[in-house]
Amino acid sequence: MPDRRLAILEDLERSEEEVAAELAEIDELYASGEQVRLAAHDLVDLLGRLPGEREAAAREIEESARAREEARAVFENAEQELAAAEKTSDQEVLAAARRFHVRTRDTLHLAERRARAAEDHAAELEAAATAAEGHVKELNARAQELAQVLGRRPRVALETETAADASPAQVAEWGTQVRAALLVARSQVAVERDALVRQANELASNVVGEPVAAMSAAGAADLLRRTLDQS
User: Fold this and answer.
1) In a structure prediction context, what are the per-residue pLDDT tens digits for the chain, which is 231 residues long?
2) Counted domains in the chain
3) Residue 160 and residue 150: Cα distance in Å, rounded?
4) CB 125 within 8 A of CB 57
5) CA 118, 122, 123, 124: dihedral to nearest 10 degrees?
6) Domain carrying residue 38
7) CB 226 within 8 A of CB 63
8) Are 121 and 57 in contact (CB under 8 A)?
9) What is the pTM of this model?
10) Cβ atoms within 10 A of the Cβ of 38, count?
11) Terminal Cα-to-Cα distance of the chain (whole angstroms)
12) Which residues, 6+ apart, have CB-to-CB distance to 65 below 8 Å?
């Protein structure tokens, strides 16, 4: 009889290992699903911001270019005034012209720097927009791959599928469904694991003749083996 109980415990031990492996797989799928879902949300946010940021960048380019041209015109005028002042013997006029020349030169440098920054920012936005197009394709490929894996898991019940040309918003919504489905599946497997552990502990207590501390099926089987060796 004890040998039969040991065989049962060993079966429970193997079942627990299988359930643990399934839990680990679900956790991996959950992590993959969250990566897809969060990446989709990031793209939704980026694509939502791009039109407004592009418009603002275009305005900044226009305004900074106008300010640069105005600063250049003032600087050229300052150069002319300085050249004229250098031909006079009035030191006060010359000093004032030099100060004005320095101020307008510095203002022009700042205006040029602002214009370059505006152009650089606009270029960065266009690069981000181009990269986003590639990210959308990559996101859909990842979602399709995950969908195929989930489709082979009977525990994972998804209400909808994700299309190969889905928008980031659609992928994000699908990712939310994946998240919920995997949480349900994990809960089901965890219940099975707990049932196996409970059954193993009850059987070990029955054989040992007294309640045993909560342990895994593997631990219960080891305890029973030691008990049988001592008998």
Assistant:
1) 456 777 887 888 888 889 999 999 999 999 999 999 999 999 999 999 999 999 999 999 999 999 999 999 999 999 999 999 999 888 999 999 999 999 999 999 999 999 999 999 999 999 999 999 999 999 999 999 999 999 888 888 887 788 888 999 999 999 999 999 999 999 999 999 888 888 888 877 776 666 666 677 777 777 777 776 665
2) 1
3) 12
4) yes
5) 100
6) 2-230
7) no
8) yes
9) 0.76
10) 12
11) 13
12) 115, 118
Q: Are 36 and 139 in contact (CB under 8 A)?
A: yes
pLDDT at 79: 95
Among the listed residues 108, 111, 110, 83, the one whose alpha carbon sits nearest the alpha carbon of residue 97: 83
pLDDT value for 200? 80
Q: Supply 130's token pair.
A: 């181009």
Q: How many whole angstroms separate alpha carbon 179 and alpha carbon 143?
A: 13
DSSP notation for 100-168 = HHHHHHHHHHHHHHHHHHHHHHHHHHHHHHHHHHHHHHHHHHHHHHHHHHHHT-TT---S----TT--H
Three-state DSSP class for 211?
A: coil
Residue 145 tokens read as: 């791959």
